[in-house]
Specification:
Lyase 2-enoyl-coa Hydratase, Chain  A, domain 2; 12 helices; 2-enoyl-CoA Hydratase, Chain A, domain 1; alpha/beta; 6-stranded mixed beta sheet
Length: 267
């Protein structure tokens, strides 16, 4: 098994579990990852998802290069096929792209050690990234004659200043955790032994909030990020209207008035 999974106190913890391969992702582990993320998406007992990895040496170094050599199938023929079929025929990068899973529950990447290539592309798709002081980040694909094949080129430019992003992309150079925090790639920095405790603390804070409201905020953020402001505001108003009479919103206001913690039900 390349992935481990558990749910506790509304928090799903997904661990990449191939430490001998620096948690590189082969086809089997990519399929497992997508399946457990789908399970978490559809489980009403899950409000936040933590994505991390076994060990302190590596979060993920991307695709397992030993098992992803170019296939004999023509790329053009595979390109027009389904995600699973295309992956079987060599376009494994589609399995790292999580956008098709439509996960609106918050994803927190808790990063120890190497976070490189497809591993960084995986982390960049999470809503929050926290890291230990031994974390190292990079998109080294050009060093081996390739390019970030999922979302790395676009996502890194949104995550950090353009000059920093282009330097990382064009040189393949790595940055350490302290610099990553400085430029905004990660939000929190901790010692390696305290990483999961910090991740759970952050996840618990989010899980205490209204789960429908949290997911709606993420949906609005994703849907309106590249549209004109007027259209974004209109969509936000529609979403607010959809939330206005929800049980959770009424409970939140009632609890505030009664000076007690709210008991959200996700309705």
């Amino acid at each position: 098994m390349g992935i481990s999974y558990k749910v506790e106190n509304y928090i799903a913890t997904v661990l990449l579990d191939r430490p001998a391969a620096l948690n590189a992702l082969d086809l089997e582990s990519l399929r497992e990852l997508r399946q457990v993320l789908t399970n978490a998406r559809d489980d009403d007992e899950v409000r936040v998802i933590i994505v991390s990895a076994t060990g302190e040496k590596s979060f993920c170094v991307g695709a397992d290069l030993k098992s992803t050599m170019p296939p004999s199938v023509n790329f053009g023929a595979s390109f027009i096929k389904s995600t699973e079929r295309a992956a079987e025929e060599g376009i494994y990068t589609r399995l790292i792209d999580l956008s098709s899973l439509r996960i609106f529950k918050p994803l927190i990447a808790a990063i120890n050690g190497y976070c490189l290539g497809g591993g960084l592309e995986l982390a960049l798709q999470c809503d929050l990234r926290i890291a230990s002081t031994n974390a190292v980040f990079g998109l080294p694909e050009p060093v081996v004659g390739s390019i970030p094949g999922v979302c790395g080129i676009q996502a890194i430019q949104k995550a950090v200043p353009s000059a920093v992003a282009m330097k990382m992309l064009l040189t393949g150079a790595k940055i350490d955790a302290i610099y990553a925090e400085k430029v905004g790639l990660i939000s929190d920095l901790t010692d390696p032994g305290g990483l999961m405790e910090k991740a759970r603390e952050l996840a618990s804070t989010i899980a205490r909030n209204g789960p429908v409201a949290v997911q709606m905020i993420k949906k609005i953020a994703e849907t309106s990020s590249n549209v004109p402001l007027a259209q974004a505001i209109e969509f936000t108003e529609l979403a607010w209207g959809a939330m206005r009479d929800s049980e959770d919103r009424i409970e939140g206001r009632t609890a505030f008035a009664e000076k007690r913690p709210p008991d959200f039900k996700g309705r």
